[in-house]
Specification:
- By secondary structure, the protein is α/β, with parallel strands linked by helices.
- It has one domain.
- The chain is built from 5 helices and 4 strands, in the order ββαβαααβα.
- It has a 4-stranded parallel sheet with strand order 1-4-2-3, covered by helices on one side.
- Helix 3 crosses helix 5.
- The longest helix is centred in the middle third of the chain and has 13 residues.
Length: 115
């Protein structure tokens, strides 16, 4: 089971293993406060895609298409993440303000669809 949580929300035991799925460390957050168990930065959107998207809701559909294509082109890291997810409950931790339109949402969807 995969849950999603913003990095700025307090960690809880029910989170299970906390996996950061961002390319950059969340701004202003210490490692202690984040309580991240493992960082999967190589499954996050490429720097170019991240900059292009800029969290613009009007670009969401195209961002979705491009990011899913990046994931398909990165099978090694996706399988490494899948192996980690298979060991028990995990929470994908992300930094974006928009809880519905961010790469963690798409990554979770991709992992659940292709498992």
């Amino acid at each position: 089971m995969i849950k999603l949580k913003r990095a700025y929300e307090a960690p809880e035991k029910k989170d299970g293993v906390r996996l950061l799925v961002e390319r950059l460390w969340p701004r202003g957050l210490t490692k202690e406060k984040a309580a991240i168990d493992e960082w999967f930065k190589d499954v996050a959107p490429s720097p170019e895609l991240r900059k292009w998207y800029g969290h613009d809701p009007a670009k969401w559909a195209e961002f979705r298409r491009r990011y899913l294509a990046e994931l398909k082109g990165n099978p090694g890291e996706v399988e490494r993440l899948r192996a980690r997810v298979g060991k028990g409950p995990v929470t994908f931790v992300y930094a974006a303000k928009d809880e519905n339109r961010n790469s963690a949402v798409l990554l979770k969807e991709h992992m659940e669809k292709t498992s």
